[in-house]
Amino acid sequence: MDKLRFQSFGSGSSGNCYYIGNASRGLLIDAGLGVRSIRKHLRNIGLDFENIWGVFVTHDHADHIKAVGPIGEKHHVPIYTTRAVHEGIQRSYCVTEKLYTSKKYIEKGETIQVGEFNITSFPVSHDATDNVGYTVEYKEKRFTFATDLGYIGEEVANELKQADFAVLEANYDEQMLQEGSYPVHLKNRIISKTGHLSNDQCGLFLSENFHSRLKHIFLCHLSRQNNLPDLAYTTVQNYLEEKKIIVGKDVQLITLDRSEPSELFIFE
Ligand SMILES: [Zn+2]
Ligand SMILES: [Zn+2]
Prior knowledge:
Blueprint: E1 4-10, E2 17-21, E3 26-29, H1 35-44, E4 52-56, H2 62-65, H3 68-74, E5 79-81, H4 83-91, E6 103-105, E7 111-114, E8 117-123, E9 132-138, E10 141-146, H5 154-160, E11 165-169, H6 174-179, H7 184-191, H8 199-208, E12 216-220, H9 229-242, E13 252-255, E14 265-267
Parallel strand pairs: 3-4, 4-5, 5-6, 10-11, 11-12, 12-13
Antiparallel strand pairs: 1-2, 1-14, 2-3, 7-8, 8-9, 9-10
Helix pairs in contact: 8-9
Bound molecules: zinc ion (2 copies).
């Protein structure tokens, strides 16, 4: 019953939300879907908001915060993030129900304990008000979430190098983006150091920094216009296999769907 569980409820610009926990309690990373969808996904795994000990928000873009208002104020789930992200949430057009009693502040780099989970935040490079990733530690297993980042900085790398499980962005294929229909300023934004991570950046980092502790890689936040699930998967797989890391044997590689929930992963 207390095995580590993970499920993606949605991953991409139409809404991000991940469950991490065990069979009876856990945390959400981001709440960028509608509150009813999130509740439905929780109920499908036998949970409700009363089983959620906190939502940890990565940044204040709409696809990560849409439901924090009702989850925090109506369902009384604490909403944890940095002071700057909270200020961004208060200003955000997409959060109509503002946060009061549910607001919880974290400092970047610190580790806090919530129930049996230890959560460490770390800075990532992106263009919201403030941006963090999280490592959730549970029974000596480390689960690192790094989404919406223009490049893998030192702090992100440090976390990924110790992770048993990693949710890492593979947002775009460089050629698809360049040849696609996005206006130049948007292409430049995505490619920039405060934009998103490409399949190549993701695969190159993972292959060069692979360690035997890393058992599962989940590719997240794939672009609808500038990526394809198979392309993201094979690009990362090719980088790993160039370094003789065999997908399916040395590590599991999973692409998270943009709008469909993933299967519920239960780890030994
Ligand atoms: Zn996003
Ligand atoms: Zn973002």
